[in-house]
Amino acid sequence: MVHLVAPTGSQFFICSEISGGFHSLIRILTHLQKQNILDDSLTLTKPNTFLIFNGNSISRGPYNIETLTTIVLLIKQNPTRVFYLKGKQETHDYWTNLNFRQELKYRGKLFFTSGIPLKNELSAFFETLPSALYLTIPEENKKFIRISPSGRSDITIDETIVAQNLPKTASTGAHIVSLQRKKESAQQEAIPQIISIIKSEHWIKKHEAKLGLTETDQDQGSTAWTVLSSAIEPYQKLFSFSYDAYAVLTLSNPLSASTITLYNKKLNSAEPFKKVISYSIQTGIPVDQKKRNGTTGHFTIGSSMALVQGVPIMGQRTKRGMSVRLNAENDAGGMNHNLLRSIVYNDNYTPHVARKNIETLLSRDKAELILLPVGSPTLTSYLDFIKDKKAIVLFPITGGPQFRDPSLKGIVHFRGTYADEVRALVDYMVTEGAAKRFAFFYQDDAYGKGPLEAAHAELNKKGITSWTDVPYQRNSVDFKEQAQKIKEAQPDAIGLFSTAQATQELIRQIGIDFLTNKQLFGISFLGEASFRRFIAKHGLKVLFGAVVPNPHTSNLEIVKEYRAAMDKEGYPYDIFSLEAYIATSLFLDVMKKISPPITKEKILHALEQLTEYNFKGLTLTFDPEHRDLARHIWLESGDDQEWVQKEIEKINSKKKDENARSINTSGSEQLPQRPTSSPS
Question: Which of 88, 363, 393, 514 is deepest in the core (most CB within 10 A)?
C-alpha cells in the first residue's frame, strides 16, 4: 500500500475502470494537457498534483497494450505522483481470462508460438502494484481518505495490519508500506480512521456511477464513492454508459472538508469536458449548498447481517434500504449537524461471527446502537449484551418469539412476530384453501421453532390435531430424508419455516411434480428475491406473510416515499429494503423529536412512548408485553395487487400465561401466542 501525506490544496485526478479504453484515456489526458496539468512529455506540471489509476485499467476493452503502455510511461515520468493501484483484473492473473489475453496472442503471434506472450513479465509487474492509497494531511495525520479498487470489507486488505504498519510520524510525500502482521497484541484491533473511500465500479453487481461518479452505500462507516472513467462497448451495452469521466479530489483542512468533483464528456460529442458537480467528500452534500460542512460530529450506527453467505440477498436488501435513507438524511445536512455513520459487518448468518461483530461495534467502533440486524440465531448469540444493558438493538429482522420478552428492555421491534404471520397464513389455508393435512418444514432452532409452535396452536384451535413436522439443521444441504417424509405424509399444504437456500434444496430433492398440486406458504423471512425467482422459474406459488405492505402498489405515504428514493438510485423494490427504509425513517423521525444531546437511552424511551402514532400512513403503538410497534401484517397476493391486511390483536398477561401453559398434541409446551383477527 501507499501512505501519502499531502499538503492542503493538493489535487488528485482519479480514473477508475479504464478497462483497455485507450481512446477514453487519451481524451482525458488531452483535456488535462489543455488545463496545463500535463505537458507534452506526460509530466505533471503543477506542484502537489497527482494522477491515480484506481484499478482495472486493463482487460475488457480492445486496446489494452496501448492503455498499459501509456500508464507505464506516466509512472516513469512522474514516479512519485502517478499511482497505478491493483484491481481485480491485475490480481492473480485474472486478466488472462479476458480480452487482454486474446490481444497479446493475436498481436504477438509472429514472435511467440505458444502460451500468452509476456505473461510472466506482466504478472510480475502487476504484483508490484499497491492495493490501496491511504491519503492524509500533515495537520490531521491520523485521519485518512482511502483510494482503492476494493472496499473496506474486502479480504485483500486487513485494516488491522494496515494500522500496525502505518508510520507514526511521516513527512510530506509518498511512502510505500509493506503490510506485515506484528506481534504486539495491543495493536491487534486498531484500524485506521477512514472518513471516506473512493472505489472502483462493481459493474458485475450493479451500475452506480451513471455519470462517472456517485456516492454509494457507506462502507463500514466511511462515506463511499465510486468512479467509472471509460465508455467501452460492454459498458455502453450493459449500462447505457456513454461518458469519458474522471474525479478530482481536493484536500482541505480539516480533511473532512475536502471535496470531490466530477468532470465528464459525452461520448461522440463535440462538447469538451465539463465540470458537472462538486461534493463534500464526507457528507456527500453538493458544495454549492449552504449546508456544506455543516456537520460538527457524528452518530454511529452499527449492524451485523449476512452479506455473502447464509441469507445474503436479505442482508444486502436490508443494508440497501437502510443506506438509501441514511444517505438522504446526510445529504440534507445530517441529524442536528451530526453525520450519521453506518458500520455494517458481514456475519454469514453464523452466530459466533455475529457476536464478534457486535463486540467490535461496541468496543472499537463505539456504535451508539445496533440497527436492523438480520436473523434469529445470530441475534441469540449476543442476547446477553442486551440483557446486561451493553447494547441497544432496534428493529431486528426477526420474528422469533424468544425476543419478545418484556424483560428485554434493550430491544424494540418494528415488525410483528413470526407467530402473527403463521396464524394468519394457517387460517387462510384452512378457511380459503380448505387444507386439512399439513406438513411443516422448519429449521430446528429458535428461528424455525417459534413459527412451528404457532402453527400447531392455530391448527388445534381449528380442530385439526394431526400434522407432520419435518426438521432440518441450519446450513444443511442434504434433504433426502425430509423429502421422503413429506411425500409419505401427502399433505394438502406445506408450511415453510426455513431459509431460502434450504427451501430451494428441498424443492429440488422432493421434485417439482410432487409440489404442483400442493399449497405452499412461508413466513416473510423466506421471501427474498433469489427464492422468488426460483419458484417463478419452476412454476410454483408460495403464499408469504409480510410485515410491510406491497412495495409496488401501496398508496401509503411512506411507501410512495420509498419508491421515489429507490427510483432515484435505480434500485428495484422489494419487501426487505422497504422494511429497512421504513424502520430507518422511523428511527430518524424519533431522533428529530429528541432535544440534544441525542443518546441511545433517549431514543429508546421515545420509541416506548409511541401510542396510536400515525407514521406516514402506518399506525404504530408500542406494546410493552412484546416490545414491538406493528399493528398489522399482510398476506401477499401478487406484485400488482393490494395485499390482504390483517390486524394484530394484543393479549393481556393473564391470557398470555394461560397460553404459555397449554400443551400441544405431541406433549411439548406452547410458547405464548397472539391471535390474529379476520382480514381488514
Answer: 393
Alpha-helix residue ranges (DSSP H) falling in 432-510: 446-461, 480-489, 500-510
The CATH class of the 418-546+649-679 domain is: alpha beta
Q: What is the mean pLDDT of the chain?
A: 88
Res. 441: pLDDT tops 70:
yes
Write out pLDDT tens, residues 581-634: 999 999 999 999 999 888 999 999 999 999 999 999 999 999 999 999 999 999
pLDDT at 202: 62
Enter the C-alpha cell of residue 549.
405492505
Alpha-carbon distance 458 to 464, whole Å? 9
CA contacts within 13 A on the Cβ side of 356:
10
What φ, ψ does residue 544 adopt, rounded to 5°? Answer: -100, 145
- Looking at the chain, the domain(s) classified CATH 3.40.50.2300 span 300-415+576-619, 418-546+649-679
pLDDT at 668 exceeding the cut of 70: no
The whole-angstrom separation of Cα 480 and Cα 513 is 16
CATH class, domain 2-280, is: alpha beta
Q: Give the pLDDT score at 182.
A: 63
What integer pLDDT is reported at residue 382 of this predicted model?
Answer: 96
How many whole angstroms separate alpha carbon 524 and alpha carbon 545? 5
Cut 0.90: pTM above it: no
Point out which residues pair with 303 in neighbouring strands: 344
